[in-house]
Structure formats: structure tokens, C-alpha cells
């Protein structure tokens, strides 16, 4: 079980959040509902989606490395 209060738990949560928001950006209904605000608390979802789409190669490599770490090393 991954602990949220450890560094690797925070990294896993952050990667999953960025990947989920990038997926939300591809779905039209979710894009207009969740990613319409660019400021404030709801703007965090928009900013994570932008990070996920612009840095998709780095995010994908980070997900593979983190999955390897969680499954085999930890």
C-alpha cells in the first residue's frame, strides 16, 4: 500500500493526477465541465491537464519508472 505522506506516495499521486487531467482534456463533456476555469481552485485541474499534454513524453516515462519502482523495488 502506498502511503500518501511519503515522498513516493506524493509522486504517485501527482503523476496519477496529471495523467487523469490530461485524459479529461480529451473528453469533450469533461473538458467543458471540469477544465473551463483557468484560475482559482478549479484551475489546478486545467494546469495539470496542460502539463500532461505538453510534457506527455516525460510524464509517460515517469509513470513507467514509478510503476517499476512501486512493483519491484519497494
Topology diagram in text:
Layout: H1 7-26, H2 28-34, H3 43-54, H4 56-73
Helix pairs in contact: 1-3, 1-4
Structure report:
It is elongated and about 40 Å long. It contains four helices and no strands. The N and C termini lie close together (10 Å). With 74 residues, it is mostly helical. 77% of the residues lie in helices and 0% in strands. α1 (7-26) packs across α3 (43-54) and α1 crosses α4 (56-73). It comes from Ceratotherium simum simum (Southern white rhinoceros). Involved in the early part of the secretory pathway. It is a single-pass type I membrane protein.
Key phrases:
single chain, 74 residues, mainly alpha, 0% strand, elongated, transmembrane, Protein kish, golgi apparatus, Kish-B
Taking the sheet with the most strands, its summary is: none
Average per-residue pLDDT, rounded, comes to 87
CA radius of gyration: 14 Å
Distance between the termini: 10 Å
Total E-strand runs: 0
Measured as a percent range, the helix fraction is over 70%
Number of DSSP helical runs: 4
Structural class, from helix and strand content? mainly alpha
Membrane topology: Single-pass type I membrane protein
Pfam family, one: DUF1242
Protein name: Protein kish
Main location: Golgi
